[in-house]
Amino acid sequence: MGAQKKGGARVSEDPVEQGHQRLQAILLADSFTTKFRPVTLERPKVLLPLVNVPMIDYTLAWLEFAGIEEVFVFCCAHSAQIIDYLENSEWSSHPNLSVRTIESQKSISAGDALRYIYEQQAETSQIQGDFVLVSGDTVSNMPLADLIKEHRERKKKDEKAIMTMVIKQSKPSPITHQSRLGTDQLFLAVDPKTKQLLHYEEDKIDHARGSVCLEKSLLQSEPSLLLYSDMQDCYIDICSPEVLSLFEDNFDYQHLRRHFVKGVLVDDIMGYKIFTHEIDSSYAARIDNFRSYDTVSKDIIQRWTFPYVPDINFSGNRPLKLGRQGIYKASDVVQSRSADVGSSTVVGDGTKIGDGSRILNSVIGSGCCIGSNVVIEGSYIWNNVVIEDGCEIRNAIVCDGVKIREGAVLEPGVVLSFNVVVGRGFVVPAYSKASLLQQPTKEDSDEELECVESSSVAADLLAGLNLEMEARESDLGPDGAGYIWEVCEGANDEEWKHSVAPIPMDKVAEIIQAMEDDDDREDESCVPTSGELRSDADSINTDMNDPGDDDYGYFEKEVEGTFLRAVEEGIVVENVILEINGLRLSYNMESADCAGATFYSMMKLAVDTPHNSADELCKNAVSIITKWKRLLGFHVKKTDEQIEVIMKFEEMCQETAKELGTLFAKILHVMYEIDLLQEDAILRWAEEKAGADEADRVYLQQCEAFIQWLKEASEEEDDDEDDEEEEDA
Amino acid sequence: MDFQVVILAGGFSSNLVPLVSKEVPKALLPVANRPVLSYVLDLLESSNLKDLIVVVEGEDAALKVGGWISSACVDRLHVEVAAVAENVGTGGALRAIAHHLTAKDILILSGDIVSDISPGAVAATHRRHDASVTAVLCAEPVSGPSESGGAGGKDKTKKPARLDIIGLDSSKQFLLYIAIEAEIKKDTRLKKSILCAAGKMELRSDLMDSHIYAFKRSVLQEVLDQKPAFRSLKQDVLPYLVRTQLRSDVFSEEKTVEENGNGNGKNNMQSNEVVLSQILSNASLPSFHQVYESGLNSRKTHKCCVYIADESKYCIRLNSIQAYMDVNRDVIGDANHLSGYSFSAQHNNIVHPSAVLGSKTTVGQNCMLGEGSQVGDKCSVKRSVIGRHCRIGSNVKVVNSVVMDHATIGDGCSIQGSVICSNAQLQERVSLRDCQVEAGYVVNGGEHKGETFARK
Question: Could you tell me which residue ranges the EIF2B subunit epsilon/gamma LbH domain spans (chain B) (predicted)?
Answer without folding.
Answer: 349-438
